[in-house]
Amino acid sequence: MKANRLFFPGPIETNPLQLVDLPIPEPGPGQMRIKVSVCGVCHTDLHAAEGEIYPPTLPITLGHQAVGVVEAIGASTVVQRRVIPVVGMRVGIPWLHSACGKCEACKRGEENLCKNAKFTGFHVDGGYAGYLLADARYVLPIPENISDEQAAPLLCAGIVGYRALKKAGVRRGEHIGLFGFGASAHLCIQILQHWNCKVSVFTRALAHQEHARQLGAVWAGSAGQNPEKPLDRAIIFAPTGGLVVRALETTRPGGTVVINAIHMSDIPSFPYEKIYGERTLRSVANATYRDGQEFLILAATAGIKSTVNLYPLHEANRALQDLKASRFNGEAVLQVAGV
Predict the structure, then answer these.
(1) Which of 5, 22, 249, 331 could form a disulfide linkage to 153, CB 3.0–4.6 angstroms apart?
(2) How much is the pTM?
(3) Which residues touch 67 (CB under 8 Å, ≥6 apart)?
């Protein structure tokens, strides 16, 4: 099979991913082999490719928004979920590959915080390849009315964005600010529209501002500008620490600012008055299996649509370069089937 492997991190402009031939993997106990159709391209992949976050071992196959079909199931595999994947079922493979299920975080239902959690395309090989091995407990059945290309961005950008909205405590009809308008934000705005919220978008890219208006934003501008009314909640998607202070400045007393980023530059010091007034600042780390279940049901019901930019598997470096340079709206998706 073909796989895009990261052997050594480096600037994405140097094309650090290499297309190689690998044997088709065999599933062991508790595993399923997935024949990959498509795989979304995420900022986390870019961070790993450029060495801003470090996979425990190299080489590694990136990609954690894979959609495909269950082709084989390892011996003695038992799945304790409401939906048990079977051979031929179309599934999604998200960021969370597995969790221990025994630690205090897992017992609290916070498997996303498990110290022994493993992540797809980081600890184990991901979806920038013709096949991958998934933990059978964590694959997500894809609703019938969502195509492969549409489903891929939902598996990280959508799920973690949904978790960010939950952690922000969003209520119907509130005024929500989105800082950055890439893959996750363009899905979140559709959830917020479904919840009858008013959305303001802060992004420096004029094309992204226009995209936000097309998707229903009541206001779109740069981070240095202010919408007419203060925000009730703010979600930060851009990995820029200075935006934390800016978001606090635009959020009302009693409001919440949520950081939705696996990697971010340092947050600068700021006067206490910026957070005073019972404002809350919190981060989002990964997402749970239940988040994935809930969000895919919501996406199918609400008709949430991804803005998809397709690339062939062998152009994964170019897709990441375009992502870094904000050359497209929405999300890049690699076409894997047939390679």
Answers:
(1) 331
(2) 0.93
(3) 36, 37, 38, 39, 90, 91, 92, 93, 142, 148, 151, 152, 155
